[in-house]
Amino acid sequence: MIKAVFFDIDGTLVPIGSGRVPADTRRALAELRAKGVKVFISSGRHIEWIDNLGDLEFDGYVTVNGALCLGHDGRTPIFTRLIDKGDVERLVDFSAGSSMPFVVVPARGGIFTTAIDDNFLVVAEMLHLPQVPVRSIEDAKACDVVQMMVFGSHEEIEASGLFRDVLTGCEPTSWCPYFADIIPKGSDKSVGIDRMIEHFGIDISETMAFGDGENDMGMLEHVGLGVAMGNALPEVKAVADYVTADADDDGIGKALRHFGVI
Length: 262
What we know:
By secondary structure, the protein is an alpha/beta fold. The protein is 29% helix and 21% strand.
């Protein structure tokens, strides 16, 4: 019996480029809640950047790839994992000789970027991100940082030695060719899910999750039933228990009905 369902946002609840949850998906979520199933977000976004879900209500939020879990109000902390201060300090030194923009995500909000380039603009438009202030990377030293982002191709990021030599306590995760999320080693959406279900007294066998990107793979393998969207990356589909239709083709509703959850 499924008691909790976790949803990625971009490419899952919200089709890429649309900026909103489709009506058929909203109906499926309403049916879930009516049956007493708990509904959670599990996203790479910080709560400050979750502004594309309209008036939908959730029982909790697994944010920034599992490093920050919040209650139903989007404010009450359930679990927090910070990036090591040493990594932040080394990044400040590294940034002096790098042209790649970095976004800094403090646990309490106040997200900022060190610069805006073409990659940043493409992602901001694609995800309908709010305006992000430009500040010095030095400001990160005074923050409790849960996540960062680096903009550039994956080849450029790898060639820079960023994760090999600088962010030694972090690892990259991504679902898009224009940037990578920077998370503390050992963080993953599955870690956040474990903290969330522990809080609610739910067993992992009673969970289900939907996703489409590389940063969803650990989550889909970990839960009781992992569903990849039809628009998911091939490697994501390969680890899922089931592949449903696209995000804009009632993919969530079809999978929930297929398994008799609604």
